[in-house]
Amino acid sequence: MTLQTWMNEFYPVPASEVLEKDAPAHSLRKWKGLLKENLEKHDCITNFNGDVLGHGGKIEISEATCALCLLYRFVGNLCSACPLAVSRGRSCFLPTSDEDYFSPWRAWLYERNPLPMINVLEKAIKNKETIL
């Protein structure tokens, strides 16, 4: 397995090519790929920046590879239109009162824990489906 096999499974389309309606699911797929067992399955690891490394290169885990960030980061009041911000009341990098310091993004950045981001993405997708 390689970085390419990881990308084939969890990041098959660049974030810049994702349609707005598909962006939450695209992001969720990528974040599920960051679970330890999925990285290990493809012989990938993360570096000190949280990027995914594997045989054949690396993929940056940042706003550059997030379909939601590319669509909403500079719309309105810094991410305010993003489905994550709408669902949780603030962007993924700002903690809520019950999160203390580790917002979903910071949980990844400092602890390599993708679960908070997975959870908020699943909630945002569910909330969006409920609204429709």
Compact description:
The chain is mainly alpha-helical. It has helices spanning 3-10, 23-33, 36-41, 67-72, 83-88, 104-111, 115-131, and strands at residues 45-46, 52-54, 57-59. A three-stranded antiparallel β-sheet has the order 1-2-3.
Properties at a glance:
single chain; 6% strand
For the biggest sheet, the summary is: 3 strands, antiparallel
What structural category do the secondary elements indicate?
mainly alpha
> What integer is the average pLDDT?
92
- Helix coverage percent: 40-55%
- Total tally of structural domains: 1
| Helix-strand pattern | HHHEEEHHHH
How many DSSP H or I helices? 7
Number of strands: 3
Strands of the widest sheet, in order across it, are 1-2-3
Could you say which overall geometry the principal axes of the C-alpha atoms support? globular
Task: Note the gap between the termini.
Answer: 39 Å
Percent strand equals 5-15%
Structural Rg: 14 Å
Give the low-pLDDT segments.
Answer: none
Structural features, described:
The radius of gyration is 14 Å and the shape is globular. The protein is mostly helical and 132 residues long. The chain is built from 7 helices and 3 strands. The chain starts with a helix and ends with a helix. The chain has one domain (3-131). The mean pLDDT is 92. It has helices at residues 3-10, 23-33, 36-41, 67-72, 83-88, 104-111, 115-131, and strands spanning 45-46, 52-54, 57-59. Helix content is 47%, strand content 6%. Helix 2 packs antiparallel against helix 7 and helix 6 packs antiparallel against helix 7.
